[in-house]
């Protein structure tokens, strides 16, 4: 879920009986006796039937494991019922999962989405997590409209061949007939080229996924980490990949080999060789389109900056020792994987020691442009390019229309944010905004989710058990109210009674319900139309740095937006209560809408 609320991140509360989890396939934790409270955009949503379990496989070996969450009882959260809370402890930037989901959303590919949350378990702060949705029956229903599908299969270690048929796991646990899958795998096994399966397999979608895997130097999806699903709308199977934390060279200590990974070696993968070799020109066209549209520095660098600015305060909290001298969420004492704030900063920039995201994207872009003879941006092909340059003009990474596979969350930075149960970002210029839509893009506010596992009933055991959980999503605030056409076209000419109370503002943030920063808070984490913002970690809230200068005594004819609707500007910013909440772009403060003249921003 991409969700910024009050420039905060979703909070998830989960409680464990013991801080140690042994990595062992036989050790599981799962409880069906939990509750979930979601705090999002100043709203509270409660769910009484929650299944909460230890997630991941190899990731359990890391100090900060992930979790799975399922909402039962026919309830949903933004159209989804099942989510993953990813720790991504092996990946220092916290961004690879988010970026890969966003790339899929940008291209309109069916995919999970990602957002950021802070997690609490039984009121114990567990740190920053990446929230994603999951390829489950509810996802299929949301995206494709098919309820209780019996044709969604998970592959952990298998080829798209008949010999691997027993390694596919049907996500519908009540389904027993796998003949549709077997028929598909037989056809894939017998096929000599793409022509033999084009009527039963969505080749264009497959080519796009393979192109993304190649561009991101991915290795973790070959015979692994993918699903197949038969779309009843066209009777074609589709290929769905997931688990992106090891993409973009995260896994490799051979940086040069990762950057210079050529397609000749990549296409040795049997299924790739079989389905692409006779259709290489079409595949090349698809790859070039992806490079031009999204896999390039001009598009991805600003996105990295936005995400980085948004999550920075939460990364800082994630790397701050608690009262017990421990870092949040580090439950597995057998692993000491940890990245400092300095390493986090470096991992997103032009750093080779930690394989910085920008460094990888830039060098991979140059290599692919040359390998496939793509007419790429000369600025980024210049090896003398200033690595510290600031990109200001570029196409938004996010679509302006909702794609069927994603949640949408409007933010102050993007037209729409696409999140499929997955992510959020802050930029050096993103502020509190409120929105109640789920998206895989970044939202400038954060919500809180709380999972409460009281009287926990453990269905499978782990020696050091995990207990009741609380999940909280950090809040986001949007201060602008939407205007209805009828109200715009038919002004009454009469204003409601004005309160005699004069509202005095000291900083611009107070117009949207946030306090001014105290004198010791000077670090700028975000900027928007309400000036500069800092973050108070003690109070866990945003505060404003930009002072407000009242211009009500000046001649502001034509400067006050209400004059367009036939209403005068207020003198001294008197407040008035309105019965309607959608009368236009007015400031809402504690239930009071203010008509006010043009605001001057002064540092």
TrEMBL record:
GO terms for molecular function: hydrolase activity. It comes from Neocallimastix californiae. The keyword Cell membrane does not apply. PROSITE patterns: CBM10. This is CBM10 domain-containing protein. Keywords: Hydrolase, Repeat, Signal. Pfam families: CotH. Residues 506-546 form the CBM10 domain. The lineage of its organism: Eukaryota, Fungi, Fungi incertae sedis, Chytridiomycota, Chytridiomycota incertae sedis. Gene3D superfamilies: Cellulose docking domain, dockering.
């Amino acid at each position: 879920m991409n969700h910024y609320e009050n420039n905060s991140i979703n909070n998830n509360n989960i409680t464990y009986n013991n801080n140690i989890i042994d990595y062992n396939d036989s050790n599981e934790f799962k409880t069906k006796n939990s509750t979930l409270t979601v705090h999002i955009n100043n709203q509270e949503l409660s769910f009484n039937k929650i299944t909460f379990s230890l997630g991941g496989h190899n990731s359990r070996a890391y100090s900060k494991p992930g979790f799975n969450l399922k909402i039962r009882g026919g309830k949903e959260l933004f159209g989804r019922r099942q989510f993953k809370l990813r720790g991504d402890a092996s990946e220092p930037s916290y961004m690879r999962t988010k970026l890969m989901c966003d790339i899929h959303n940008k291209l309109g590919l069916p995919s999970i989405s990602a957002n950021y949350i802070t997690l609490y378990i039984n009121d114990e702060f567990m740190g920053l997590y990446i929230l994603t949705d999951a390829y489950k029956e509810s996802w299929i229903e949301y995206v494709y409209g098919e309820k209780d599908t019996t044709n969604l299969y998970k592959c952990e270690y298998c080829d798209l061949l008949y010999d691997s048929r027993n390694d596919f796991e049907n996500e519908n646990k009540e389904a027993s007939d796998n003949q549709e899958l077997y028929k598909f795998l037989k056809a894939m096994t017998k096929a000599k080229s793409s022509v033999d399966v084009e009527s039963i397999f969505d080749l264009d979608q497959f080519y796009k996924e393979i192109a993304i895997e190649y561009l991101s130097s991915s290795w973790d999806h070959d015979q692994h980490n993918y699903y197949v699903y038969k779309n009843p709308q066209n009777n074609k199977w589709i290929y769905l990949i997931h688990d992106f934390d090891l993409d973009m060279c995260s896994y490799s200590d051979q940086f040069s080999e990762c950057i210079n990974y050529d397609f000749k070696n990549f296409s040795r993968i049997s299924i790739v060789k079989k389905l692409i070799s006779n259709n290489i020109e079409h595949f090349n066209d698809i790859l070039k389109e992806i490079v031009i549209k999204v896999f390039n520095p001009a598009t991805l660098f600003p996105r990295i900056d936005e995400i980085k600015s948004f999550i920075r305060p939460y990364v800082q909290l994630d790397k701050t020792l608690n009262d017990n001298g421990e870092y949040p969420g580090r439950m597995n004492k057998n692993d000491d994987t940890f990245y400092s704030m300095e390493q986090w900063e470096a991992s997103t920039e032009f750093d080779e020691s930690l394989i910085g995201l920008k460094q990888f994207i830039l060098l991979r872009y140059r290599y692919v442009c040359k390998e496939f003879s793509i007419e790429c941006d000369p600025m980024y092909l210049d090896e003398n390019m200033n690595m510290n340059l600031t990109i200001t003009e570029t196409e938004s990474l996010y679509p302006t229309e909702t794609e069927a596979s994603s949640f949408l969350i409007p933010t102050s930075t993007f037209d729409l944010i696409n999140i499929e149960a997955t992510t959020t970002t802050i930029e050096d210029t993103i502020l509190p905004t409120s929105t109640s839509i789920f998206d895989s893009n970044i939202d400038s506010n954060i919500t809180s989710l709380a999972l409460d596992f009281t009287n926990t009933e453990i269905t499978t055991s782990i020696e050091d058990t995990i207990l009741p959980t609380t999940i909280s999503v950090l809040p986001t605030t949007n201060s602008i109210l939407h205007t209805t056409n009828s109200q715009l076209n038919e002004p009454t000419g009469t204003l409601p009674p004005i309160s005699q109370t004069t509202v005095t503002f000291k900083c611009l943030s107070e117009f949207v319900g946030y306090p001014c920063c105290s004198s010791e808070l000077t670090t700028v984490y975000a900027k928007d139309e309400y000036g500069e913002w800092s973050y108070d970690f003690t109070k866990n809230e945003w505060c404003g740095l930009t002072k407000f200068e009242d211009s009500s005594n000046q001649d502001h004819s034509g400067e006050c937006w209400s004059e367009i609707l036939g209403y005068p500007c207020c003198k001294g910013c008197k407040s008035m209560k309105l019965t309607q909440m959608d009368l236009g772009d007015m400031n809402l403060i504690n239930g009071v809408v203010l008509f006010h003249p043009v605001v001057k921003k002064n540092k």
